[in-house]
Design brief:
The protein is mainly beta. It has a single domain, classed as Immunoglobulin-like (Sandwich), CATH 2.60.40.200. 7% of the residues lie in helices and 32% in strands. β6 and β7 form a beta hairpin.
Length: 175
């Protein structure tokens, strides 16, 4: 939890001058499902004056780091490996990753850390998205979703930082 809190503070400090569109205090949530369609966690989002506070909590995942991204379409079809969620919000060809000099993409997020008990939690602020509509708005006409990958994202490699297969998905909805 300390690592993800530090990441949150660093992201906020590095990009504090950027502001997100959207109504302050707007909220959204997502139930996260695995490939079998079982609910394994949830995500809560709250719009602030300079970004979106994101809190994700999951269970029943393999221990270790897991890539976590916001995807451009609000659909989660387990039978397709969650490919229906399409690419990242704000996709920029060759710019994936929080540490990429050409990036990051708006949908890039810190890794989710899962303990030996299969429970994981992450909290961070993203200044590149908003809950409302507009540029990189998460609740636009085609919606958005969270995708959890089976391995860690290295925040720079192409594609998806080596994070591997999509193992969980959650469609964002107004809270």
């Amino acid at each position: 939890m300390i690592k993800t809190t530090l990441t949150s503070i660093l992201l906020t400090a590095l990009f504090a001058s950027t502001s997100s569109a959207g109504h302050v205090n707007a909220e959204a949530h997502a139930e996260l499902i695995n490939k079998g369609g079982t609910i394994i966690g949830e995500a809560h989002l709250k719009q602030g004056p300079h970004g979106v506070l994101i809190h994700v909590k999951v269970s029943q995942l393999a221990p270790g780091k897991h890539g976590l991204h916001l995807h451009s379409h609000g659909t989660c079809e387990p039978g397709t490996g969650f490919k229906s969620a399409k690419g990242h919000v704000g996709k920029i060809e060759g710019a994936h990753g929080l540490m990429n000099p050409k990036g990051p993409e708006a949908g890039d997020l810190p890794n989710l850390y899962v303990g030996a008990d299969g429970i994981g939690e992450m909290e961070a602020v993203s200044v590149w998205v908003s809950i409302g509509e507009g540029e990189n708005g998460l609740l636009d006409a085609d919606g958005s979703s969270f995708i959890i990958h089976d391995a860690a994202d290295d925040h720079i490699s192409q594609p998806i930082g080596g994070a591997g297969a999509r193992v969980a998905c959650g469609i964002l909805k107004v809270k």
